[in-house]
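Reproducibility note. Readers wishing to regenerate the assembly model reported in the main text can use the exact inputs given here. Chain order matters: entities are listed in the order in which they were concatenated for prediction.
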Amino acid sequence: MATLELRNVNKSYGSGLADTLKNIEISIDSGEFLILVGPSGCGKSTLMNCIAGLEDISGGAILVDDQDISGMSPKDRDIAMVFQSYALYPTMTVHGNIAFGLKMRKMAPAAIEEEVARVAKLLQIEHLLGRKPGQLSGGQQQRVAMGRALARRPKIYLFDEPLSNLDAKLRVEMRTEIKLMHQRLKTTTVYVTHDQIEAMTLGDKVAVMKDGIIQQFGTPKQIYNDPANLFVASFIGSPPMNFIPLRLQRRDGQLLALLDSGQARCELPLGAMEAGFEDREVILGIRPEQILLATDESRNQSSIRAEVEVIEPTGPDTLVFVELNQTKVCCRMAPDDAPQVGQTLELQFDPSKVLLFDAKSGERLLPGKPLASGGKVAQFKAG
Amino acid sequence: MTKPVSLSRVAIYATLLAACAVYLIPLVIMLLTSFKSPEDIRTGNLLSWPEVFTAIGWLKAWDGVGGYFWNSVKITIPAVLISTVIGALNGYVLAMWRFRGSQLFFGLLLFGCFLPFQVVLLPASFTIGQLGLANTTSGLVLIHVVYGMAFTTLFFRNYYVSIPDALVRAARLDGAGFFTIFGRILLPMSTPIIMVCLIWQFTQIWNDFLFGVVFASGDTQPITVALNNLVNTSTGAKEYNVDMAAAMIAGLPTLVVYVLAGKYFLRGLTAGAVKG
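Running the prediction on these inputs yields the following C-alpha cells for the assembly.
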C-alpha cells in the first residue's frame, strides 16, 4: 500500500539520441491501479523498468510514499514485478520460485512456508508446488509468476504485459482474476499493456503514451469520452472511433459540419461560433455506437441517407459500414436492426458526443464544451 | 507388416557400413596388435587374429608411460576445471552485465580463439620463466587455462545470451546479488554447456603435444610427449604391441569422456548456436 508519484521523469540513452521518456508526470493514490498503454516502442516498458529500478532515469524523481526511490537499487525499492515472459526460474520448483525472494530477504524458514502456502491457496496452485515451470501450462506459469510477486507483499506491483502470451480465452479469464485480486488486496499496481480493452477494464487511472510522451492521463471514462487528441481517440475503443475529414462552415453564428454520403448531404450544427474556426480543416470524430438509426419518430429532414457497403456481424453487435465524405464510417447496431448490404439507411448522430480535432496537429478543438445546445439529437438537413 | 527392402535402402546401409569400417579399422588394428606377441606381429598380417592373446604389450607400455599418464591427469583436471569456472564467470558477465567496452573486450577474447599455439610459445615461455614456473606442472596448467579461457568464455557467453534478460531482472527484484544470481539461477541451468566445455577442454589439454614438449621436461612431461619418446626410440627391435598399447592408454581417457558426456555435447553446442 503506497502512493506513487512520477515527477518530470526523463530518460535518454546517450546524448544525441531522441529521449525515450519525456517529462513524465503521473501521480496515483494508494491502492490504485494504473495502466500504461500505448503502441510498441512508446516507452511504457522503459517507464516500468525505471520504476522497478532496472534502468536509471536521466532526470526527475520517482516517489513512493513521498520518498524518492530513484537512486535506490531494485532490491531496496520493495517492488515486485510480473514479467511478460514470466521469467520463472526453470531449475526451481514452483515452491522454490515463490520462496526465492523471501529467502533472499532472509525470512525465517517457518514464515516462508506459511507465506508460500498462503499465496498458493490464494492462486489455487497448491497442487503445483512440487512441479518445475517446464511442466506447467501457460496459464499455470502465469499464476506462479503472480504468486512470486504476491509472496513478498511489496508496496507496489508491476505487471509488464502479463497476459500477452496467453490464448484469447485464458486472457479474458486471467484479466478478471487480476481485477478480483486487486479488489481484494488493494495494492498499488502499475500495469503495462498495448491492449486498450485491458486498459479500459482494469485501470483506475490510465496513461496513454506515444513516443515517450504521456498523451493523456485520466480515468478510463475520461480517456474514452473525452480524449485529448486524435491519437488517444483512435487508440482507445474497439472498433475504433470514426474520423471524418471536413471543412467547418458558418451560418447565423453557428458552426456547421458538412457531410456527404454520395446520395445525400447534410449540415451538422456544432454550436456557437468561436473565433478562428471558420473555414478550418478539421476531423470530426464519432464512435460507432453513437451513430444511430433514425426511427419513424426521430426521422426528419436532417437525417442523412447512406448506402450500406459492408456488414460485419460480430455476434452481440453488427458493424455496418457506410461512406461519408469519402471515408469509411463504422456504425454499431443491434443484430436485429442490421440492414442488408446495398440497402439505404437513415442515420442520426448524437451531437453531444461528436468531437472535433485539428486536422494538422491532431489536437482536440473546443475541449470540454458541449457542442450543440441542449444535447438534443442534431438536426440534419437532407441535401 | 514389414516394408519391402528397397535397393536404395541397401545402398544407404552399405555406404554407412563402409564409412564405419573406414573409421573403425585403425582402432581394430591397434587393439589386435596391442594384444599380439612380437613374433606374432612379424609373422602375421595387420588384420590377422592374435595366435595367443598376451597382455605383455600393455604391461610394458604402462611401465613406459604410466607415470606420465598421471602427469597428464595432474595437468588436465585442474586446467579443465579452472578454465571452465573462469569461462562461466566471464560468459555470465559478458552476456548479462554489459559494461562500457564489453563488446570490445569480448572481441579481443575471441581473437584468442584464432591465435595459433606457435605464436604464443615465446612470450608464454618468457612469462612462465619470470613467474618461476618453468618446467613445472603448475606452469602447464597456467598456460592451458589462459589459452582455453577464450574458448570457454565464448561457449558460456553464447549460451547465456540465449537466456532471457527477464530472468536476471526478476532475480534482481527478488533481492539476489551478482554471485547469487549466477550460482542459484544460471549455473543450475548450465549443465549442457558445462559438459561441452569439459569435453572440449579435456580433449584439447589431454591431447596437447606442443605446449607439453616446450614447457615441460623430464618427469613433468605429459603422456603425449612420453608416447612420442617411446615410439621414436631407435634402439632395439620395434615393439609394435607396446607402441599400440601405449597409444591406446594415451587415447582412452578422451574416449571415456566422450562416451560418458557425449549426449550433452551436441545438445550444448546447438543450444549455444541458435541465438547470439
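We highlight two features of this model. Chain A has two domains: 4-235, 242-375. The CA atoms of residues 252 and 273 of chain A lie 9 Å apart.
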